[in-house]
Specification:
Layout lengths: L1 H17 L25 H4 L4 E3 L2 E7 L5 E4 L5 E5 L2 H17 L21
Antiparallel strand pairs: 1-2, 2-3, 3-4
């Protein structure tokens, strides 16, 4: 605690020597622009080399650092994530179709809607 008090006192004394806080001018160096910083990650489109074509759009599959597989469209937007490559490859065309046309449930089934809000007393 004594260290904090002495640091505050030192700061206040330096302000008295230099003048008031209002007289203090900020540093004149310009802040670094975001475009000046080096890119840490390549754009997703450059990392994906094999695209699969469907009537509803193209997609590519990449294994992530966590060991799961994720499909991406041409813009690099992630679509489907799964444990196995074949599962992601199988479901991604359906996902692209449902995204463009909307989902229609198979005959004989009813599309249910659910509410995520818990009502009532727990």
């Amino acid at each position: 605690m004594n260290f904090l008090n002495s640091a505050v006192n030192e700061f206040l004394n330096s302000i008295k020597r230099e003048g008031s806080l209002q007289d203090h001018k900020p540093p004149t160096s310009k802040p670094e622009k975001p475009q000046d910083k080096p890119r840490l990650v390549e754009p997703m489109v450059e990392l994906l080399d094999t695209f699969y074509t469907t009537p509803y759009g193209d997609f590519a599959i990449k294994k992530t650092r966590f060991g799961v597989h994720t499909s991406y469209d041409r813009e690099g937007i992630d679509l489907v994530t799964g444990l196995e490559w074949i599962d992601v490859f199988t479901i991604t065309p359906g996902h692209l179709q449902w995204e463009k046309e909307g989902y229609t449930p198979p005959e004989g089934t009813v599309q249910a809607t659910y509410d995520s809000v818990v009502s009532g007393k727990l």
